[in-house]
Design a protein that fits this description.
single chain; 72 residues; mainly alpha; 434 Repressor (Amino-terminal Domain)
Length: 72
């Protein structure tokens, strides 16, 4: 899962600082998610999913299908 976060960020040519700013957190805090040191809170998963236009399941490595689900 953590590689997915890095890949998504790098595919958009973003730095950890830029993503952390979008999430209103520090770069250090965000980097802990990418290296798997801290679990990602649900609200952050949802924000990342929406920002990258992928499903939470894709970020969590449950599926290889990037397409997000229809919102309820």
């Amino acid at each position: 899962m953590y590689n997915r976060l890095r890949e998504l960020r790098e595919d958009k040519d973003l730095t950890q600082v830029q993503v952390a700013k979008i999430l209103n957190m520090s770069q250090t805090g965000y980097s802990q998610y990418e290296i798997g040191k801290n679990d990602i809170p649900t609200r952050i998963l949802i924000k990342l999913s929406s920002f990258y236009g992928v499903s939470v399941d894709y970020i969590l490595n449950v599926t290889n299908e990037m397409k997000p689900y229809k919102r309820a």
